[in-house]
Amino acid sequence: MTDASIQTQPETGEATFGDYVALLKPRVMSLVVFTAAVGLLAAPGTVHPFIAFFAVLCIAIGGGASGALNMWYDADIDRVMKRTANRPIPSGRVGADEALAVGLTLSGFAVVMLGLASNWVAAGLLAFTIFFYAVVYTMWLKRWTPQNIVIGGAAGAFPPMIGWAVATGGVSIESVLMFALTFMWTPPHFWALALFMNSDYEKAGVPMLTVTHGRRVTRRHILAYTVLLAVLAIGAAFTSIGGPIYLTVAVILNAMFLFGAWKIWRRDEEMAAADGYRREKRFFALSLLYLFLHFGAILAEAALRPWGLGGW
User: Fold this and answer.
1) N or C: which end of the chain has fewer CB within 10 A?
2) Which residues contact 100 (CB under 8 A, 6 or more apart)?
3) What's the confidence (pLDDT) of residue 13?
Protein backbone atom coordinates (compact mmCIF):
# COMPACT_ATOMS: atom_id res chain seq x y z
CA MET A 1 0.00 0.00 0.00
CA THR A 2 1.38 3.38 -1.03
CA ASP A 3 1.69 6.44 1.17
CA ALA A 4 -1.00 8.19 -0.87
CA SER A 5 -3.49 5.38 -0.32
CA ILE A 6 -2.76 5.39 3.39
CA GLN A 7 -3.45 9.11 3.57
CA THR A 8 -6.80 8.83 1.78
CA GLN A 9 -7.97 5.79 3.76
CA PRO A 10 -10.77 6.82 6.16
CA GLU A 11 -9.97 6.42 9.82
CA THR A 12 -12.71 4.17 11.15
CA GLY A 13 -13.84 4.36 14.72
CA GLU A 14 -16.90 4.41 16.90
CA ALA A 15 -18.96 7.55 16.52
CA THR A 16 -19.28 9.84 19.50
CA PHE A 17 -22.05 12.29 20.36
CA GLY A 18 -19.78 15.05 19.06
CA ASP A 19 -19.63 13.35 15.65
CA TYR A 20 -23.42 13.46 15.34
CA VAL A 21 -23.39 17.10 16.41
CA ALA A 22 -20.75 17.82 13.74
CA LEU A 23 -23.02 16.11 11.20
CA LEU A 24 -25.52 18.93 11.76
CA LYS A 25 -22.97 21.66 10.87
CA PRO A 26 -23.29 23.58 14.16
CA ARG A 27 -21.43 26.66 12.89
CA VAL A 28 -23.88 27.04 10.03
CA MET A 29 -26.72 26.27 12.44
CA SER A 30 -25.67 29.17 14.67
CA LEU A 31 -26.26 31.59 11.79
CA VAL A 32 -29.62 29.95 11.06
CA VAL A 33 -30.69 30.25 14.71
CA PHE A 34 -29.62 33.87 14.99
CA THR A 35 -31.22 35.16 11.79
CA ALA A 36 -34.42 33.18 12.44
CA ALA A 37 -34.63 34.59 15.98
CA VAL A 38 -34.14 38.13 14.64
CA GLY A 39 -36.90 37.59 12.08
CA LEU A 40 -39.23 36.37 14.82
CA LEU A 41 -38.41 39.12 17.32
CA ALA A 42 -38.47 41.92 14.75
CA ALA A 43 -41.93 40.94 13.54
CA PRO A 44 -44.99 42.85 14.76
CA GLY A 45 -47.08 41.28 17.49
CA THR A 46 -46.03 39.01 20.32
CA VAL A 47 -45.30 35.32 20.58
CA HIS A 48 -45.34 33.39 23.84
CA PRO A 49 -41.71 32.96 24.97
CA PHE A 50 -42.01 29.17 25.09
CA ILE A 51 -43.52 29.01 21.60
CA ALA A 52 -40.81 31.37 20.33
CA PHE A 53 -38.05 29.25 21.88
CA PHE A 54 -39.52 26.01 20.58
CA ALA A 55 -40.04 27.45 17.11
CA VAL A 56 -36.41 28.60 16.85
CA LEU A 57 -35.33 25.17 18.13
CA CYS A 58 -37.33 23.50 15.36
CA ILE A 59 -35.77 25.83 12.77
CA ALA A 60 -32.33 24.96 14.16
CA ILE A 61 -33.10 21.23 13.96
CA GLY A 62 -34.30 21.69 10.38
CA GLY A 63 -31.09 23.52 9.54
CA GLY A 64 -29.08 20.72 11.13
CA ALA A 65 -31.06 18.13 9.19
CA SER A 66 -30.15 19.96 5.98
CA GLY A 67 -26.50 19.78 7.00
CA ALA A 68 -26.71 16.04 7.61
CA LEU A 69 -28.32 15.45 4.21
CA ASN A 70 -25.68 17.63 2.59
CA MET A 71 -22.88 15.64 4.24
CA TRP A 72 -24.53 12.36 3.22
CA TYR A 73 -24.69 13.31 -0.46
CA ASP A 74 -21.36 15.15 -0.56
CA ALA A 75 -19.28 12.46 1.18
CA ASP A 76 -17.37 11.73 -2.05
CA ILE A 77 -16.44 15.39 -2.44
CA ASP A 78 -15.61 15.82 1.24
CA ARG A 79 -13.10 12.95 1.12
CA VAL A 80 -10.82 14.76 -1.33
CA MET A 81 -11.08 18.27 0.13
CA LYS A 82 -8.60 19.14 2.85
CA ARG A 83 -11.12 21.42 4.58
CA THR A 84 -13.74 18.66 4.88
CA ALA A 85 -11.80 15.38 4.94
CA ASN A 86 -12.20 14.99 8.69
CA ARG A 87 -15.97 15.32 8.67
CA PRO A 88 -17.85 12.40 10.30
CA ILE A 89 -18.68 10.48 7.09
CA PRO A 90 -15.42 10.70 5.08
CA SER A 91 -13.43 9.99 8.24
CA GLY A 92 -15.44 6.80 8.70
CA ARG A 93 -16.83 7.67 12.13
CA VAL A 94 -20.45 7.89 10.93
CA GLY A 95 -21.92 5.72 8.20
CA ALA A 96 -23.62 7.26 5.17
CA ASP A 97 -26.84 5.38 5.89
CA GLU A 98 -26.84 6.70 9.46
CA ALA A 99 -26.39 10.27 8.23
CA LEU A 100 -29.26 9.88 5.76
CA ALA A 101 -31.52 8.48 8.48
CA VAL A 102 -30.61 11.30 10.85
CA GLY A 103 -31.24 13.93 8.18
CA LEU A 104 -34.62 12.56 7.10
CA THR A 105 -35.84 11.92 10.65
CA LEU A 106 -34.88 15.35 11.93
CA SER A 107 -36.36 17.01 8.82
CA GLY A 108 -39.75 15.40 9.39
CA PHE A 109 -39.68 16.10 13.11
CA ALA A 110 -38.72 19.77 12.69
CA VAL A 111 -41.34 20.55 10.04
CA VAL A 112 -44.24 18.77 11.79
CA MET A 113 -43.44 20.16 15.23
CA LEU A 114 -43.01 23.70 13.89
CA GLY A 115 -46.39 23.45 12.18
CA LEU A 116 -48.07 22.21 15.35
CA ALA A 117 -46.35 24.75 17.59
CA SER A 118 -46.81 27.84 15.41
CA ASN A 119 -48.41 27.68 11.96
CA TRP A 120 -48.16 25.77 8.71
CA VAL A 121 -46.90 28.72 6.69
CA ALA A 122 -43.73 28.71 8.78
CA ALA A 123 -43.55 24.92 8.59
CA GLY A 124 -43.98 25.02 4.81
CA LEU A 125 -41.16 27.53 4.48
CA LEU A 126 -38.93 25.32 6.63
CA ALA A 127 -39.78 22.26 4.53
CA PHE A 128 -38.99 24.18 1.33
CA THR A 129 -35.70 25.42 2.83
CA ILE A 130 -34.60 21.87 3.65
CA PHE A 131 -35.61 20.68 0.18
CA PHE A 132 -33.85 23.60 -1.50
CA TYR A 133 -30.58 23.06 0.36
CA ALA A 134 -30.51 19.26 0.18
CA VAL A 135 -31.87 18.74 -3.33
CA VAL A 136 -31.71 21.93 -5.41
CA TYR A 137 -28.34 23.14 -4.10
CA THR A 138 -26.51 20.00 -2.93
CA MET A 139 -27.67 17.50 -5.55
CA TRP A 140 -27.96 19.82 -8.53
CA LEU A 141 -26.48 23.33 -8.43
CA LYS A 142 -23.29 22.61 -6.50
CA ARG A 143 -21.98 20.10 -9.03
CA TRP A 144 -23.33 21.57 -12.26
CA THR A 145 -22.97 25.33 -12.41
CA PRO A 146 -20.59 28.08 -11.24
CA GLN A 147 -23.75 29.93 -10.18
CA ASN A 148 -24.17 27.32 -7.42
CA ILE A 149 -23.52 29.81 -4.62
CA VAL A 150 -25.56 32.60 -6.21
CA ILE A 151 -28.76 30.59 -6.57
CA GLY A 152 -28.05 28.21 -3.71
CA GLY A 153 -27.63 31.14 -1.34
CA ALA A 154 -31.41 31.24 -1.06
CA ALA A 155 -31.27 28.22 1.25
CA GLY A 156 -29.37 30.15 3.90
CA ALA A 157 -31.51 33.25 3.40
CA PHE A 158 -34.87 31.72 4.35
CA PRO A 159 -34.49 31.47 8.18
CA PRO A 160 -35.45 35.11 8.95
CA MET A 161 -38.51 34.65 6.74
CA ILE A 162 -39.42 31.54 8.68
CA GLY A 163 -39.00 33.35 11.99
CA TRP A 164 -41.16 36.22 10.72
CA ALA A 165 -43.83 33.74 9.60
CA VAL A 166 -43.85 32.15 13.06
CA ALA A 167 -44.87 35.51 14.52
CA THR A 168 -47.18 36.76 11.77
CA GLY A 169 -48.40 33.68 9.91
CA GLY A 170 -47.22 35.11 6.60
CA VAL A 171 -44.58 36.82 4.48
CA SER A 172 -44.12 40.58 4.14
CA ILE A 173 -41.75 43.06 2.53
CA GLU A 174 -39.74 43.22 5.79
CA SER A 175 -39.04 39.50 5.81
CA VAL A 176 -38.20 39.62 2.09
CA LEU A 177 -35.67 42.38 2.83
CA MET A 178 -33.98 40.22 5.47
CA PHE A 179 -33.97 37.34 2.99
CA ALA A 180 -32.41 39.59 0.33
CA LEU A 181 -29.71 40.82 2.70
CA THR A 182 -28.51 37.26 3.36
CA PHE A 183 -29.00 36.21 -0.25
CA MET A 184 -26.81 39.02 -1.63
CA TRP A 185 -24.20 38.51 1.10
CA THR A 186 -23.67 34.83 0.28
CA PRO A 187 -21.75 35.08 -3.04
CA PRO A 188 -18.95 37.44 -1.89
CA HIS A 189 -18.70 35.51 1.37
CA PHE A 190 -18.18 32.12 -0.32
CA TRP A 191 -16.19 33.41 -3.29
CA ALA A 192 -13.68 34.92 -0.88
CA LEU A 193 -13.33 31.45 0.66
CA ALA A 194 -12.96 29.91 -2.80
CA LEU A 195 -10.09 32.26 -3.64
CA PHE A 196 -7.84 30.69 -1.01
CA MET A 197 -9.37 27.19 -1.09
CA ASN A 198 -9.48 26.87 -4.87
CA SER A 199 -7.27 23.77 -5.02
CA ASP A 200 -9.78 21.89 -2.87
CA TYR A 201 -12.62 22.65 -5.27
CA GLU A 202 -10.45 21.73 -8.26
CA LYS A 203 -9.58 18.34 -6.76
CA ALA A 204 -13.23 17.66 -5.91
CA GLY A 205 -14.46 18.73 -9.33
CA VAL A 206 -16.83 21.35 -7.88
CA PRO A 207 -17.46 24.06 -10.52
CA MET A 208 -16.92 27.06 -8.29
CA LEU A 209 -16.43 30.32 -10.17
CA THR A 210 -12.71 30.24 -9.30
CA VAL A 211 -12.43 26.85 -11.04
CA THR A 212 -14.52 27.54 -14.14
CA HIS A 213 -13.64 31.19 -14.81
CA GLY A 214 -10.52 31.80 -12.75
CA ARG A 215 -9.65 33.97 -9.79
CA ARG A 216 -9.50 37.22 -11.80
CA VAL A 217 -13.16 36.92 -12.82
CA THR A 218 -14.08 35.90 -9.29
CA ARG A 219 -12.49 39.05 -7.90
CA ARG A 220 -14.59 41.17 -10.26
CA HIS A 221 -17.72 39.32 -9.21
CA ILE A 222 -16.94 39.85 -5.52
CA LEU A 223 -16.65 43.60 -6.08
CA ALA A 224 -19.84 43.78 -8.16
CA TYR A 225 -21.91 41.84 -5.65
CA THR A 226 -20.48 43.83 -2.76
CA VAL A 227 -21.59 47.08 -4.43
CA LEU A 228 -25.12 45.70 -4.92
CA LEU A 229 -25.13 44.39 -1.36
CA ALA A 230 -24.11 47.78 0.04
CA VAL A 231 -26.95 49.52 -1.81
CA LEU A 232 -29.46 46.98 -0.48
CA ALA A 233 -28.08 46.95 3.09
CA ILE A 234 -27.97 50.72 3.47
CA GLY A 235 -31.32 51.15 1.73
CA ALA A 236 -32.93 48.78 4.26
CA ALA A 237 -32.12 51.36 6.96
CA PHE A 238 -34.97 53.54 5.62
CA THR A 239 -37.60 50.80 5.85
CA SER A 240 -39.66 49.65 8.83
CA ILE A 241 -36.92 47.26 10.03
CA GLY A 242 -34.28 50.01 9.98
CA GLY A 243 -33.53 53.10 11.99
CA PRO A 244 -30.58 55.22 13.15
CA ILE A 245 -28.80 52.35 14.90
CA TYR A 246 -29.07 50.12 11.85
CA LEU A 247 -28.07 52.96 9.52
CA THR A 248 -24.91 53.68 11.53
CA VAL A 249 -23.93 50.01 11.57
CA ALA A 250 -24.75 49.56 7.87
CA VAL A 251 -22.75 52.60 6.72
CA ILE A 252 -19.65 51.62 8.71
CA LEU A 253 -19.73 47.92 7.80
CA ASN A 254 -20.48 48.47 4.13
CA ALA A 255 -17.69 51.03 3.84
CA MET A 256 -15.31 48.44 5.29
CA PHE A 257 -16.73 45.67 3.09
CA LEU A 258 -16.51 47.76 -0.07
CA PHE A 259 -12.94 48.76 0.73
CA GLY A 260 -12.02 45.12 1.32
CA ALA A 261 -13.64 44.03 -1.96
CA TRP A 262 -11.85 46.85 -3.82
CA LYS A 263 -8.49 45.78 -2.39
CA ILE A 264 -9.19 42.17 -3.42
CA TRP A 265 -10.18 43.31 -6.92
CA ARG A 266 -6.90 45.22 -7.34
CA ARG A 267 -4.70 42.25 -6.47
CA ASP A 268 -3.10 39.92 -8.98
CA GLU A 269 -2.51 36.25 -8.27
CA GLU A 270 1.24 36.57 -7.74
CA MET A 271 0.69 39.18 -5.06
CA ALA A 272 -2.07 37.16 -3.40
CA ALA A 273 -0.16 33.89 -3.43
CA ALA A 274 2.99 35.56 -2.11
CA ASP A 275 1.28 36.59 1.13
CA GLY A 276 -0.78 33.41 1.47
CA TYR A 277 -4.08 35.10 0.50
CA ARG A 278 -4.11 36.95 3.82
CA ARG A 279 -6.23 39.80 2.46
CA GLU A 280 -8.81 37.34 1.10
CA LYS A 281 -8.89 35.52 4.45
CA ARG A 282 -9.45 38.82 6.29
CA PHE A 283 -12.30 39.69 3.92
CA PHE A 284 -13.87 36.28 4.56
CA ALA A 285 -13.61 36.81 8.34
CA LEU A 286 -15.12 40.29 7.98
CA SER A 287 -18.01 38.81 6.01
CA LEU A 288 -19.00 36.69 9.02
CA LEU A 289 -19.02 39.72 11.28
CA TYR A 290 -20.87 41.71 8.62
CA LEU A 291 -24.00 39.59 8.64
CA PHE A 292 -24.17 39.09 12.41
CA LEU A 293 -23.87 42.83 13.06
CA HIS A 294 -26.49 43.77 10.47
CA PHE A 295 -29.00 41.39 11.99
CA GLY A 296 -27.94 42.47 15.46
CA ALA A 297 -28.77 46.06 14.48
CA ILE A 298 -32.20 44.97 13.19
CA LEU A 299 -32.77 43.27 16.53
CA ALA A 300 -31.67 46.38 18.45
CA GLU A 301 -34.10 48.55 16.49
CA ALA A 302 -36.93 46.10 17.20
CA ALA A 303 -36.06 45.93 20.91
CA LEU A 304 -36.08 49.74 21.29
CA ARG A 305 -39.18 50.39 19.18
CA PRO A 306 -41.74 49.76 21.99
CA TRP A 307 -40.10 52.58 23.95
CA GLY A 308 -40.19 54.94 21.00
CA LEU A 309 -36.41 54.75 20.57
CA GLY A 310 -36.07 52.40 17.63
CA GLY A 311 -36.95 53.10 14.00
CA TRP A 312 -37.55 56.49 12.50
Assistant:
1) N
2) 68, 69, 72
3) 59
Torsion-angle region of residue 136: left (phi > 0), alpha (psi -120 to 50) or beta? alpha
Other CB atoms within a 10 A radius of the CB of residue 41 amount to 18
Predicted TM-score (pTM) above 0.70: yes
Three-state SS letters, the chain:
CCHHHHHHCCCCCCCCHHHHHHHCCHHHHHHHHHHHHHHHHHCCCCCCHHHHHHHHHHHHHHHHHHHHHHHHHCHHHHHHCCCCCCCCCCCCCCCHHHHHHHHHHHHHHHHHHHHHHCCHHHHHHHHHHHHHHHHHHHHHHHHHCCCHHHHHCHHHHCHHHHHHHHHHCCCCHHHHHHHHHHHHHHHHHHHHHHHHCHHHHHHHCCCCHHHHCHHHHHHHHHHHHHHHHHHHHHHHHHCCCCCHHHHHHHHHHHHHHHHHHHHHHHCCHHHHHHCCCHHHHHHHHHHHHHHHHHHHHHHHHHHHHHHCCCCC
290/295 Cα distance (integer angstroms): 9
Q: Is the dihedral of CA 64, 70, 198, 4 positive or negative?
A: positive
Residues 157-185 have pLDDT tens digits of 999 999 999 999 999 999 999 999 999 99
Tell me how far apart the alpha carbons of residues 191 and 218 are, in angstroms, rounded to a whole number.
Answer: 7
Distance in angstroms (rounded) separating the CA atoms of residues 20 and 15 = 7
Q: How far is it, in rounded angstroms, from Cα 73 to Cα 100?
A: 8
